Structure formats: C-alpha cells, structure tokens
Amino acid sequence: MKNGIDILINDQQLKASLRGKRVALLAHPASVTEDLTHSLDALAACDEIELSAAFGPQHGLRGDKQDNMMESEDYNDPIYNIPIYSLYGEVRKPTDEMMDSFDVLLFDLQDLGCRIYTFVTTLRYILEASAHLGKEVWVLDRPNPAGRPIEGLSLRDGWQSFVGAAEMPMRHGLTLGELGHYFIDMLNLDVAYKVVQMQGWDLSDNHGWPSDRDWINPSPNAPNVSMARAYAGTVLLEGATLSEGRGTTRPLEIFGAPDIDAKAVIQEMQKIAPHWLEGCKLRECWFEPTFHKHVGQLCHGVQIHCDGPYYDHEKFKPWRIQIAAFKAIRNLYPDYDLWRDFEYEYEFGKLAIDVINGGPILREWVDNPNATPDELDALTLADETSWAKESEKYYLY
C-alpha cells in the first residue's frame, strides 16, 4: 500500500510537472513516507521540487501543542531556510501573504475521518483561498482509519465553525482527497485541484488502516487506531465535564470522573439502548489524569474496547455510545453538572457541546427525561442516509 506522498516522490512524470513552480507543503508529524521519512525532508531531496514554504495545522508542523486552543507561531526552518506558517496561530485562514509564497500547495495530512477534526476545515480554507488567488492544490491522499461507516447528526445550518466545516455527519467516511472534491462542489469553487491517489488501499484490511503501516500520532492525543475509531464519539467529551482521558496513556478511548459510578453507568447505558453498544466492549476502569480535567484525582471510568475479538466494524457506533453514556449519567444523577461552559474554539456565547455536535439537538435530547433513543435515531438515520447518497459519488477507492 502506498500513500500519496509515496506515489509522488517515485513518479518522475508527477515530479516533472512541478518543475519551475514554487511548492509549499502543509504537513504534521504523521506526514511521512513509507520508510518514515518526513514529507518535508523527502520533498526537499527531490531535485525537481523547489520548496518555498511549509504550513502547519492545529498542534503545529511538529505536533508539539498538546491541547486545543494552544496556538503555534510562524518561524523559519533552520535546515531549509523557508518560512513555516501556522494555520492555528494568529490566523486560521491563510493570509494573502502566506498564499503568495507558493504556486502549488501539497496538502499531506493524516485525518481521523471525523467532521470535528480541524484538518477538514483547514482543507476547506486552503481551497477557498486558492480559488480566490489562482493557486493550485494537490492532496497527497492518506487512509481514513475509521473507514467508510457514516454516523451522527449532520451539522445544522448556522453552526459552522472551525470544528464544523460543512453540513455533514460527525463520522463522514471520506478521505481528505475525496472531501476536497466535495468542498469544491459545495462551494462552487474554480480551483486547480489534484488528488494524488493512494495505491493498494484495501478497506477490508484492518477496516481502513493498512496493517503494514506504522501509526504515527497526527495530533498529540491520537495515539492509535482504536482512538481513531472511537473519536467520533469521544470527541463530544471535550464539551463535557467528564475527563476524556487527556493526561493518561489512553486519551479519547476512556471517559470518567471522580464522582460517578462507572459500573452503574454501563448498566444504565445497556438499559437505555443496548443496540447502540454493539461492536465493542465497555469495561469499567480507574485512571488519574496527570493534566487537564480532574488532574491528580482518581476517576472511575469506562474504556471503549474497539479492537480484537470485540470489534465489529459495521456495528460499532461510537457517536451513539457516547450519547448513551451522557444519557445514563443524566438519568443516574439528574443534577450532574455535565456540560462544560467555556469558549470552545473561539465560539462565543455557545455551549461547547453544541459547537462540537453542530447544534443543540444532542444536548436537548440528553437533558430531556422523556426523550427516547428511537426519537434521536429518527433524526440521525435521516441525516446518515442522506449523506451516504450524497458522498458516494466522491469515492475514489
């Protein structure tokens, strides 16, 4: 199996088409070739390619920023003497000055297949700026480790944000190369766009993540494929007072707090919607975060096991699992201070859980003691079915 970067550096014709053009790279720590050379170094070694700049997304080109809303600065690369621009610093959208540094931008990011992962929005912003200024964009495609399954409510109109680029479900089922074609259609962009497609990506091999490729964190708290599978649900915890496991070795695979009974929560989840919990194993656990929420406190929690003999790729529904957990806590502790009130991703006057989910429907369902799983499913299944029909035409694999 070969990713887009591997195809490019080994294809003389593709490299020749970049000769005489100023080339920029948008990358992060997981932007590596099959022999684990970083894409910046691999491209710099190509005689045909003139690297003129590089860009880093959220968490930085080097992936050094642990939490959300921790900004990276621009700097000059000491080895290649090119500017490194941050798209998660003073700006989220590239400025005209940044765009003036290249003719062709190579977009090489490992995604997680989730709408809220900010690399999706960064792709949209790059395409919009490139259409406006006549620049060329190549996505060096990589696998969607969550595979093709689609899940979650679609983002509602008016709830667009840096963690919500478009009205798609939480788990979108596309690669970034495929999403680029979707954005171009959605926004009616006139932009020179190319996808350097993967070769040999087999969706049946480990359900999307190739078993012969090492996993490298695309962001600091994305340590493995299990996290990538669970993330479309556990990311909701960023809008809750429960810990999502930051400050532990299993971030975004576990959740808990010092003041809940995790065993009772699992039992209540099974009462609420047992059909939502299929395809994985929920296990009671204990953990003590070394930073972030509940730092230094012993938390009673739940780990979502979505690998090994417990995992069923088609049945696993991480978004519904996390919602069932919220509902269970609300049922067991009606007055629990569940929703975290802070300015999430610089969205002011909105609850973080609503920004993350792309509207208030989820929170209102959790907080309504009379709301049923079937009522939420009726809305969600309609969104999932609609997106499945719309997105299928963008499949490249």
Describe the structure.
With 397 residues, the chain is an alpha/beta fold. Helix content is 29%, strand content 13%. The chain contains 12 helices and 10 strands. The strands form 2 sheets. A 7-stranded mixed sheet has the order 3-4-2-1-5-6-7. The protein has a 3-stranded antiparallel sheet with strand order 8-10-9. The longest helix is centred in the last third of the chain and has 19 residues, at 373-391. The protein is globular and about 65 Å long. The chain starts with a helix and ends in a 6-residue tail after the last helix. The mean pLDDT is 96.
What would a concise description of this structure say?
The protein is an alpha/beta fold and 397 residues long. Helices cover 29% and strands 13% of the residues.
Distance between the termini: 13 Å
Contiguous helical run count: 12
Taken in chain order, the helices and strands follow as HHEHEEEHEHEHEHEHEEHHHH
Shape designation: globular
Largest sheet: 7 strands, mixed
Residue ranges: pLDDT <50 for 5 or more in a row? none
Q: Helix proportion of residues, in percent?
A: 25-40%
Numbering strands along the chain, what is their spatial order in the largest sheet? 3-4-2-1-5-6-7
Q: Which structural class is indicated by helix and strand composition? A: alpha/beta
- What's the rounded overall pLDDT mean? 96
Strand-residue proportion: 5-15%
- Rg, please? 21 Å
Let me know the number of strands.
10
